Amino acid sequence: MPEITLNAQLGRKIGSSDSRRLRTAGQIPAVLYGHGMEAMAISVEAKALRSALSTEAGLNQLLELHADGKSYLAMARELQRHPVRGTVTHIDFQIVQRDELISADVALNLIGDAVEVRHHAGSIDQQVFNLHVSAKPSDIPSFIEVDISDLTVGAAIRVADLVLPSGVTAVTEGDVVVVASHASRIVADPEAPAEA
Questions:
Q1: Fold of the 102-182 domain
Q2: Could you tell me if 172 and 159 are in contact, meaning their C-beta atoms sit under 8 angstroms apart?
Q3: Stretch 96-117: mean pLDDT, rounded?
Q4: pLDDT score at 185
Q5: What topology is assigned to 4-95 in CATH?
Q6: Is the CB of residue 31 less than 8 Å from the CB of residue 92?
Q7: Is a pLDDT exceeding 60 seen at residue 141?
Q8: CB atoms within 10 A of CB 163
Q9: What is the pLDDT of residue 196?
Q10: Distance between CA atoms of 8 and 1, rounded to whole angstroms?
Q11: What is the pLDDT of residue 195?
Q12: How far apart (Å, rounded) are the C-alpha atoms in residues 148 and 152?
């Protein structure tokens, strides 16, 4: 995926009151770290950050951070949000390299129609919604599709059954159940008296 450019300002002051002033001015306090570099206190424009992270890739979006005349390839690693408003109050950026393997969480999207399960009035239970994977930054997919078309009643799809894109490996254990199907809980009682 192509990276999105994000401008960062160096030299922000540390402290809750300074952070509040930054947020009031439309900036988000942040930290940039990784690859042996001492962590740098930076800030990014709130509107630009929202735009950068609202792509299909979400937090796995590759970012090119420009700060003090230098450019850093980075990814958002941890967001802190306001408990009521839900707005981002702080963000950590990790410097990455194009040829290194990194870990990330990728959304799992169910596709297809489990016809046999539906015909038997069964139910589908998705138990895992994000898969922990390892890949090069540019190989991390926006999401992974889980095809439930061949799912039968009482069967399950495990991590080991998933079809992953080239260059992507699952970190999550292979025997973890992603999707399970269950028989209908409404079973007719053969000895129940018939209604008049």
A1: RNA Polymerase Alpha Subunit; Chain A, domain 2 (2.170.120)
A2: yes
A3: 93
A4: 65
A5: Ribosomal Protein L25; Chain P (2.40.240)
A6: yes
A7: yes
A8: 8
A9: 43
A10: 21
A11: 52
A12: 9
